[in-house]
Amino acid sequence: MAIQTLQQPGLISFSRNSIVFQFKTDARYAVRGFTYIGRLTFDYNAPESYGFTLSYGDISQNFTVTQSPDDSGLQLPSYWNGDTLADYTQELADALNGNFYLSGDFVFEPAGDGANYWISVSARKAGTIYNLSVSNSAYIGLQTSRYGTAPVLNPNFKLLCELWIQKTATSEPYKVSDPFLEVDDDGVATLDISGQLTDVMLADGYERPVFTDPIALVNLQTVVRYFLRYAEVYGDSQVVRRISTTGTFFALLGGISKEKLAEFNFPGSFIAGDKLRFLKQEPLEKYLLPEQPEFLSVVLFNGDHQGLQLKFTVHFDDDSTATIYKYAMGTQGQFTKLTYPVGFVQNALNLVKADHAVIKYDVVLVNGAGDEVSETKTYWIDYSFLPYARMFVYLSSWGTYDTLVSYGKGSSQYDILNNTAEINTDRGFVLAEGERINYATSLNNKETIASGYMEKAQIRIFKDIALSRDILLYRKKRTYAVAFASKSVKEFKDGENMHAISFEIGFRYDEELFTLDDRDDQDTPLFLPLRMVQSGPAAPLPDGSLDYRYYLKSETLTTGQINDLIKAVRDSLDTLGIKEAKDIQDLLLKLQGKADTLHDHDERYILKADLQDLIIQMQDVIDNGSALAEDITFDIQVGAVNQGVTLTKGTNLTEVIKAIAFKVYYPILNLPKFSLSHQEPAQIEVGTVLTVDLVFNFDRGKIQATWPGGVDMPIVGEATGYRFWNADESGFQLVGGNTYQKQNYVALPGANSFKADVIYNAGPQPKDSKGNNFGGAMPAGISDKVSTSFTGLYKHFWSAVAVNPATAAEGRLGNSAWSTANTFTVSTGITLTRWAVLIAPGKKVAKVMDTTTNNDITTEYQLLDSNFSVNDAGGNLVFGYKLYVKSQSGTYDSSHDHVFTLNNN
Q: How far apart, in whole angstroms, are the C-alpha atoms of residue 90 and residue 131?
């Protein structure tokens, strides 16, 4: 008796998606019973029309053989001389299979040997009721080769299936459920444990991140290890049979749509190369409001990590940077989930350089050696004043706490909740006092939220809030538990494929009326003093919509509206009679060009108020004789003029417009990249002699010009030499080119690593669009060592043999698999009666299944030698092989598959 696993989930699953196990047992029946098998023969010399009866159980079907059968299912075609016997037999089988009753219980197949033809009949199920008989005809014959017999069920049969949870690799597992599964007639049972796993994760509540004093969290609730123990249970008094155990699987709190799940590959979707990816449904670059709380979660899918900490690289408005390390942890095991607070004010990044504004900052996870082990997330700081901003921190469908911001106007309402009691008095009615009293009056606050116009992809992420099990409204450094109060979400769409939604939220508490003040009445600004960001993540939008920080359309100007304001200035110039003043006309054309491209460049749109101020200042200049009548200090950025710049009294109009219209562009500096590669496969047998061709890849980086007509240049100079190091780094070979050959290299067990670096000259001086120096030139230097490797492995060997292998050379049998393989198949063939299997050091046989007969034959393979010597690929002795041999008295009638399952010593 054995249980076979037909279906199981992948190593890692989302807990709210289906996690299905399907088992099949061969112990459902004490006696499986037999199915009926017979042979129908037809007399091809019979009359053109005759009848016969087929009977089984309590069913009898009267058939007629005729030249022109109808569609009743009870008429078969008669033979005529134009048919071949094979074709006629096929027609008869098709007609019998077309009968409603017969086709449900039997299969009719044409057969023949060239001289004789017949129809093979087989019942679909076992049992005596399917024993077929034929009567009432001399032209039909029935030969029965096996009569059906009824199966005998094992009494009270079920599958016991226990779900066991293990929080960490070192913690003790514990059982959370032991359901008994019913099996179908074929012994198949199916179990979906997604609901149970989600319940386990949320049993102790939500592990919310900390807002006030941020700390890094190890989320034990949101990633669990689990396995199933299962056994057959049956008998007059139910007895549990031999227990089997699945491998260990992992569940991650969360769930995504079936369409999205089809694109996922665990854990590949959360690993980029050798770097971990954060659990985020958004790009790696995004805008962040200064006080916006933000959290990043990561699961250590690719192994254990030592000395993890978060590295912040802060970029300031003077092009300087600062590096900060926070949230150091000890060693964390594979599949641990970590959550880090990464918000701007949360981590006091605004205090790193009090005299400079932070433009952006990068966040990356590094290990104790300083190596980056995750992708890099970049946050651009948006200092804009957004009066309708609302921040929501919510448990996403990926089991992480994400933050989303809405930018549209909303409204509030209060549901007044009263508890009322009747006043019963002996005295008469008094109108002034009434007969009822209200007590425990409370308010339930509800708000209608408008998102502001966004791109469709961002609206889809916003909808994730509707599915959240935990939503917090973050307002002035406090959090409020809220929930969706509306049953539907309204969505709006404009003419440029921009979308907005609105919905109602309710607060998950009622406020009793005994407070006299509310801190929300205090005018506490949500945003730091205004700073202008020069660039940011690319977000192309159609003309006439809004900028990528989601200003409402009523607060921005489209190209057409800007053109109307410029026309008003032209009209004023015409009125003053200076229409032909070339300087003024040229500058207005430049401003016109800026308006035409306003919606394409990578800076923000101009606000209505900003451009109106500009037009007023230009009009003042014209009214005062084309020169400034007083000093003007800009308290916001206008065009290319930064905040805080002063244009002095008497400045010519031409200089004013030039200051606004002409901008200095700065290059983007892309650092050089280095890598080493080889042509060998990832896995090579130990002892193999190779010629390893190494190629050093040197990307010199780039000084990227960001202005029209600019020319890109490498950021460092050319290579002067490449150093290819010995394996122990005791020395190196200096070569002029970037290639090198390791000749007669013998593959070693484990990692075979090669390292190299490059010596390069200094790079050119970066310049801005005005030709001024931008920072300093990259000096000459030597790159960090980079490496490449392949893995040296031993092999398992097996084959059918006449005698047992006795020498190391004989141990290299004809079939092989890598020593990392935990399963392989030995095909027996039909000529020999002995099979030898040599298992590489470090492994042993756990189970052997003959999948041809579905029998466990583990004990039939005897361990004859646990320290057998086998030659590696170079003829060197390798000790510690295990020699297993199976022998039997006779050969197999047909080749069997022996499936080996291995585990570690």
A: 23
Altogether, the residues listed in the chain come to a count of 905
Please, what is the Cα angle at 722 between 718 and 726, to 5 degrees?
A: 165
Measured CA to CA, the distance from residue 531 to residue 380 in angstroms comes to 12
pLDDT in tens, 397-408: 888 889 988 876
Residues 6+ apart with CB under 8 A from 34: 126, 146, 147, 148, 149
Residues 6+ apart with CB under 8 A from 344: 288, 290, 291, 292, 294, 350, 358, 361, 379, 381
Distances, alpha carbon 65 to alpha carbons 24, 79, 143, 363, 802, in Å: 44, 9, 20, 83, 60
Give the pLDDT band of residue 374 (cuts 50, 70, 90).
very high
DSSP one-letter string for 634-703: -SS-BTTBPTT-EEPTT-BHHHHHHHHH------EEE--EEEEEESS-SEEETT-EEEEEEEEEEE--EE
> Alpha helices, DSSP H only, in 55-136?
85-97, 100-105
The mean pLDDT of 376-396, rounded to a whole number, is: 84
The reply to whether omega before 47 is within 30° of 0 (cis) is: no
Distances (CA, A) of 571 to 89, 722, 725: 98, 68, 74
Residue 590 phi/psi, 5° resolution? -65, -40
Give CA 402 to chain center in angstroms.
16
- Copy the structure tokens of residue 412: 């509030």
What is the identity of the amino acid at 711?
A: V
Quickly count: other Cβ atoms within 10 Å of residue 116's Cβ: 10
Q: DSSP characters for 135-186?
A: ES-SSEEEEEEE--B--EEPTT-EEEEEEEEESSTTSPPEEEE-PEEP--TT
Residue 720 near residue 734, CB atoms below 8 Å: no
Q: Please write the tens of the pLDDT for every residue from 141-160.
A: 999 999 999 888 889 999 99
